[in-house]
Amino acid sequence: MDNSNEITHDFSPFFKVYKDGRIERSLVLEDLPAGLDPETGVLSKDVVISPDSGVKARIFIPEIVGSDQKLPLLVHYHGGGFCVGSAFHILTKNVLTPIVSRGNVIAISIDYRLAPEHLLPIAYNDSWDGLEWIAGHSNGLGPEPWLNNHVDFGKVFLTGESAGANIAHYLAVQVGANGWAGLKLAAVDPNLSKMGCQKALVCVAEKDFLRDRGEAYYKTLATSGWPGKVEFYETKGEDHCFNAFKQCGETDALNKKVVDFMTME
Description:
By secondary structure, the chain is α/β, with parallel strands linked by helices. The protein has helices at 90-103, 122-135, 145-150, 163-178, 211-222, 242-245, 249-263, and strands at residues 7-11, 15-18, 23-25, 36-37, 42-50, 55-62, 71-77, 106-111, 151-160, 185-188, 197-205, 229-235.
């Protein structure tokens, strides 16, 4: 009897593992090619973070950038429960290109390796490697010209949605704990850090099942004695990661809030 189709582990809605070792993911989206997005005028390119692990990233930059213009940098980690998602598919594009275009900022999304093929803490380690690779450009001598020539390393922001926000929190704590000179961090979106950041923006959606956890995080941060500035922003009537799945007035308002947070002193 062939029982290779027997499910041994069911982690719906993310993935299922079958007896023969196959892994079936519930959300699989094709990668989009890098290049010019005609709707927003944002250029993108893919870079290799680590030849050993194969970890890559996608950089998004406004099409019109002066030769000596320095812009804030948004470092992004995608959601997906650590086991689905990609820096290269439509959902990441949906999140980042409007912010890059509207805010005249640069964004880079780190494509960390996924569970269950790569168990935690590999996602954290890959994301840390990505942040170290980015920091290696702060002296203008890194391998990627877009970062060398156009990033203001005094204005680096960490962001993520869902699991990606958890990663952003972890990395900001690590930067603070290690006293990483040369990078002044700020944090955008839920679950962000108090140690490595000068300011934080905690964003929640009213109908999100994690909404109360996000608010509790904000209150804990605001009363922790941390000297930085923390803001709270709630989108009414929307659900988990809504801004990745649809363009609407609420998404526009959230994008404006993020841009204002990044670009205003």
